[in-house]
Amino acid sequence: WTGYPSAFFSEHIPTVVVGAEQAKLFDTEPMNIKYMDHAVIAKTTEGAMEFAYKMTGTDKVIIFDGAMGGLNCSESMAELLIDRAPAVGERVEKELLPKWFRQRGVDISVLEKLKG
Fold first, then answer.
1. What's this model's pTM, rounded to 2 decimal places?
2. Where in the chain are the domains?
């Protein structure tokens, strides 16, 4: 077993695989037989980025390199995310997280007491 089922991603998200060797790996990987049916191949990362920019009409792209827990993206996407992070953080803290706790019957007053 060489991977995990992920053909779903290339079927639903425009996907550029960098390098013929990587494309061959995906094409012969038994868990992802259809992956390359829905992806294109670029020779270089730079070529993949140029293709993504042209296809989407934006230079704000997210790059998945297989590393869990990390996010690779274009510089303009990083700037956008950094710019919006404070507002998103505030909404999560004041609206979404309390809602999530209420939906699960968690008494957040206990957490407030722990804050001191």
1. 0.66
2. 7-73, 77-115
